[in-house]
Amino acid sequence: QVQLMESGGGLVQAGGSLRLACAASGRSVSASAVGWYRQAPGKQREFGARIYGGGLTNYADSVKGRFTISADFAKNTVYLQMNSLKPDDTGVYYCTMIALWGQGTQVTVSS
Questions:
Q1: Is the pLDDT reported for residue 23 higher than 90?
Q2: Which residues contact 90 (CB under 8 A, 6 or more apart)?
Q3: pLDDT above 90 for 53
Q4: Largest Cα–Cα distance in the chain?
Q5: Is residue 39 scored above 90 in pLDDT?
Q6: pLDDT value of position 54
Q7: What mean pLDDT is predicted for residues 25-29?
Q8: In angstroms, rounded to a whole number, what is the distance separating the alpha carbons of residues 57 and 87?
Q9: Cβ contact 2:27 at 8 Å
């Protein structure tokens, strides 16, 4: 049974940084693409970043240059380093793999 668990969210001031973690169990993160999405209040869930088993990454334009996705295969965990955070980055952040989702972690950026 594949499970994903996000952590690392919190409250941060604009311009600050957070690092989110997505710990996977039941399947190696190197075997599938893992993505980060976010859902702001009252809005649809939107794509943020994705990493493939070979290390290839892609990003939404809104986070490109500020967020970095990476994977630690030994820990079976995917990270999202978020720098230069803006109030618009506020939302619940979810990781996803093979159409499964974690429970999400709240990120709040104050102005």
A1: yes
A2: 40, 41, 107, 108, 109
A3: no
A4: 40
A5: yes
A6: 86
A7: 93
A8: 24
A9: yes
In the block, residue with structure tokens 């993160």: 29
Q: What is the DSSP string of 41-97?
A: TTS--EEEEEE-TTS-EEE-TTTTTTEEEEEETTTTEEEEEE-S--GGG-EEEEEEE
Structure tokens, 100: 């499964």
In the chain, the amino acid numbered 8 is G
Among 91, 48, 93, which residue's Cα sits nearest to residue 69?
48
Contacts of 81 (CB under 8 A, 6+ apart): 17, 19, 67, 68, 69, 70
Given a contact cutoff of 8 angstroms between Cβ atoms, the answer to whether 38 and 89 are in contact is yes
* CA distances from residue 86 to 14, 61, 62, 78 in whole angstroms, order as listed: 5, 14, 11, 22
